[in-house]
Amino acid sequence: xxxxxxxxxxxxxxxxxxxxxxxxxxxxxxxxxxxxxxxxxxxxxxxxxxxxxxxxxxxxxxxxxxxxxxxxxxxxxxxxxxxxxxxxxxxxxxxxxxxxxxxxxxxxxxxxxxxxxxxxxxxxxxxxxxxxxxxxxxxxxxx
Length: 143
Description:
Layout lengths: L8 H19 L4 E6 L6 H15 L4 E5 L7 H6 L14 H13 L4 E7 L4 E9 L5 E6 L1
Helix pairs in contact: 1-2
């Protein structure tokens, strides 16, 4: 028989935070990464941001949200490939660059600049924000 959980969004966040605290303890001071994935509009950005807020409420500055949005292909590249109508689809992201970046970020000992995505210009922005060295929990969010 399969157990089924019926969780509200708040209970989901509480369970996730408790699980992440357990992971932090097991990591013994090393940086950990937790991923939230799903299709557009699934709520992953909202839940991920709320988890970061809850984690930082108990340990200020220990967690950071790192969205995949900064790894959209540059708009000019999407145009040159004729993919404007597919922008945001998995094949319009620089997936390999994102994986490489996350690997480097997980082991970084200093501050790391992170690219982002601007809805204002509908394109990526280099150095949109910085993950400081004291962050030990990375909440990764994307497709």
